[in-house]
């Protein structure tokens, strides 16, 4: 069949399917794009030619945001389906880099199709081309290599078929997945070629659920059986593998308590008898206490990041680790015994191996923690105004339905949510903390809603985050996607402001204020009206002025058929409980400023001794 390269690409993508547990999904269910030279005549024309049935299209406003939307979508689909993103050459292409890194860090599949310079070089440099005098085959798209799990540049039509198959392999691989980039020189996109019919037959990519090796499984089960104070740490792999029911069963049967990382939060319902809640620097008192005294830790689908391990200080040096993970790389962390396999299959196998095992009964103060959470959530309709951030979270807890999704990524809210949120469904807690990227929230909300049209979606958006990437609001309005934003105004970076004060940087340039007399940003708050801004972009905006009005506004937003924003100014009163565990952010060793010197002294006193870290 004779088609252009771009037409062949779109046609191929429209007949790819992913299968797991007998259910089939379109592997690439749609495409986001912004057109410029580099894709307008190639992929743009091919989409027109193919029509929306073959490839649904979403008009993006910012290329980074398009990738975030694709990640939100793919995560909600348990990585069994994703979206592609097409861009022009140059700035449109490099705007993908942050989104690609986020996808790859979180191991979520996205297909990136940046336009590229001419392969035939009739008139270099073309508009927006960066020339590298000593490496003439380099373009700005090479910046996508380190943030992609698969990268290729289609210099000639003949290269396309094999590369497409590799791209699909990586998109559907539970371990290798992340951003997949096919850079498409613009002349090649428009070039005609004779393709084998075989390229366009339906293909099904089966997603494996491998069992860990039997000997390793037996050793892991024996270690857990020997434990006096075992603990399970549930990570993002539990969700990707849809292993939440298997985990709930195993925890209930074995009595082993469960703590959750950011990506793993919601693996257990908050009121499951074995649920201890969040672990690590943003953890709950019960989970961090259990981690400190654990003798055997079963990590399930976790990368063991610094927030989870409290920068390596949380677990006892002689604690033993068993890591059930699809990725051998993560399975071997913490000097652990690697059970390389699928989370759901592995948990069911462990449950069978440990059928007669019951962990010794221990209590970790869960009831006390629940009372502390209630206190932070505040007095409901009798609460003060303006509310604290915890009271806003409490209002959301009261208004959201069990299947609603709550999205966040950066600022002070991920920490508060990790500690406080009471997840009622494995899909409810959608916090992107692998890359913690300001600006993920709004486009991700669109992606999640596209993936799950039967769920209400709320994105918690800090004022700093809103200002960074509000652009996709317009896409939600255009397509009538009824996402709900909760814009939390605190006039700058509450999170980094707090961190700055702690590390002796005196809050420097972290508040959104006019310059003060000394030239720093300590003057009056800025006269910026984000509610008016959101309304001007087409959202239905609510501006509650009391605690009861906040709940009414959230409920009205929830049922509105339009995309909405609830705008709320918060007060830094009644904060969430302080950190139970360390996080290492080094403080300047040399300073003329007393605040920095005091912070350095405190840092040196608090910094755990090297011997306190687990074996690595
Ligand atoms: C793209 C990006 N740039 C910078 C940061 C570093 N950072 C983390 S939180 C934060 C401030 C967030 O401000 P806001 O959204 O208002 O939330 P708040 O801290 O006030 O809760 C910054 C700058 C980041 N996470 N992402
Ligand atoms: Mg803020």
TrEMBL record:
Entry keyword Isomerase: no
Keyword annotations of the record: Hydrolase, Thiamine pyrophosphate
Region described as Disordered: spans on this chain: 593-616
InterPro entries: DHS-like_NAD/FAD-binding_dom, Myo_inos_IolD, THDP-binding, Thiamin_PyroP_enz_cen_dom, Thiamin_PyroP_enz_TPP-bd_dom, TPP_enz, TPP_enzyme_TPP-bd
Record carries keyword Hydrolase: yes
Highest taxon of the lineage: Bacteria
Domain Thiamine pyrophosphate enzyme N-terminal TPP-binding: 47-120
One GO BP: L-valine biosynthetic process
An annotated GO cellular component: acetolactate synthase complex
GO molecular function: acetolactate synthase activity; flavin adenine dinucleotide binding; hydrolase activity, acting on acid carbon-carbon bonds, in ketonic substances; magnesium ion binding; thiamine pyrophosphate binding
Family: Belongs to the TPP enzyme family.
Protein name: 3D-(3,5/4)-trihydroxycyclohexane-1,2-dione hydrolase
Species per Swiss-Prot/TrEMBL record: Actinacidiphila paucisporea
């Amino acid at each position: 069949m004779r088609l252009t390269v771009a037409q062949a690409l779109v046609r191929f993508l429209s007949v790819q399917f992913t299968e797991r547990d007998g259910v089939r999904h379109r592997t690439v269910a749609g495409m986001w794009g912004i057109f410029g030279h580099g894709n307008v005549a190639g992929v743009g024309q091919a989409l027109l030619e193919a029509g929306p049935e073959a490839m649904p299209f979403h008009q993006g406003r910012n290329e980074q945001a398009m990738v975030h939307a694709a990640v939100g979508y793919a995560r909600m689909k348990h990585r069994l389906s994703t979206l592609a993103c097409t861009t022009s050459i140059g700035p449109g292409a490099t705007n993908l880099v942050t989104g690609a890194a986020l996808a790859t860090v979180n191991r979520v599949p996205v297909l990136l199709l940046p336009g590229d310079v001419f392969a035939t070089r009739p008139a270099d440099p073309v508009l927006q081309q960066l020339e590298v005098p000593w490496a003439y085959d380099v373009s700005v798209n090479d910046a996508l290599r380190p943030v992609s799990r698969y990268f290729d540049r289609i210099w000639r039509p003949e290269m396309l078929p094999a590369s497409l198959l590799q791209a699909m392999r990586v998109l559907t691989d539970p371990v290798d997945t992340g951003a997949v980039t096919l850079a498409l020189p613009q002349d090649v996109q428009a070039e005609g070629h004779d393709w084998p019919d075989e390229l366009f037959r339906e293909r099904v990519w089966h997603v494996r659920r491998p069992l860990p090796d039997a000997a390793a499984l037996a050793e892991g089960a024996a270690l857990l059986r020997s434990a006096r104070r075992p603990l399970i740490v549930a990570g993002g792999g539990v969700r990707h593998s849809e292993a939440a029911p298997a985990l709930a069963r195993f925890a209930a049967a074995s009595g082993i308590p469960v703590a959750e990382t950011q990506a793993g939060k919601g693996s257990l319902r908050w009121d499951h008898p074995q649920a201890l809640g969040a672990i690590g620097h943003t953890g709950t008192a019960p989970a961090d206490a259990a981690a400190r005294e654990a003798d055997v830790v079963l990590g399930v689908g976790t990368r063991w990041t610094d927030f989870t391990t409290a920068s390596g200080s949380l677990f006892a040096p002689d604690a033993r680790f068993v890591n059930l993970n699809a990725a051998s790389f993560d399975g071997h962390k913490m000097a652990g015994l690697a059970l390389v396999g699928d989370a759901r299959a592995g948990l069911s196998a462990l449950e069978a191996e440990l059928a007669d095992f019951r962990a010794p009964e221990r209590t970790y103060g869960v009831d006390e923690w629940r009372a502390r959470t209630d206190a932070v959530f505040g007095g409901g309709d009798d609460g003060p105004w303006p509310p604290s951030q915890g009271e806003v979270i409490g209002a959301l807890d009261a208004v959201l339905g069990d299947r609603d999704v709550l999205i966040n990524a950066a600022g002070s809210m991920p920490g508060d949510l990790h500690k406080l949120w009471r997840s009622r469904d494995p899909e409810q807690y959608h916090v992107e903390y692998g890359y913690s990227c300001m600006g993920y929230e709004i486009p991700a909300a669109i992606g999640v809603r596209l993936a799950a049209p039967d769920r209400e979606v709320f994105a918690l958006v800090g004022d700093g985050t809103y200002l960074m990437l509000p652009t996709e609001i317009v896409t939600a309005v255009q397509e009538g996607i009824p996402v709900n934003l909760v814009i939390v105004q605190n006039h700058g970076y509450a999170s980094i402001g707090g961190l700055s004060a702690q590390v002796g940087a005196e809050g420097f340039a972290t508040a959104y204020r006019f310059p003060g007399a000394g030239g720093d940003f300590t003057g009056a708050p800025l006269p910026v009206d984000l509610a008016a801004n959101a309304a001007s972009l087409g959202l239905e905006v609510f501006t509650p002025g009391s605690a009861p009005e906040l709940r009414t506004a959230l409920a009205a937003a929830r049922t509105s058929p339009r995309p909405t924003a609830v705008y709320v100014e918060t007060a830094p009163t009644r904060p969430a409980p302080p950190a139970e565990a360390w996080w290492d952010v080094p403080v300047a060793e040399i300073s003329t400023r007393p605040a920095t010197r005091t912070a350095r002294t405190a840092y040196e006193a608090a910094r755990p001794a090297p011997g306190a870290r687990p074996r690595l």
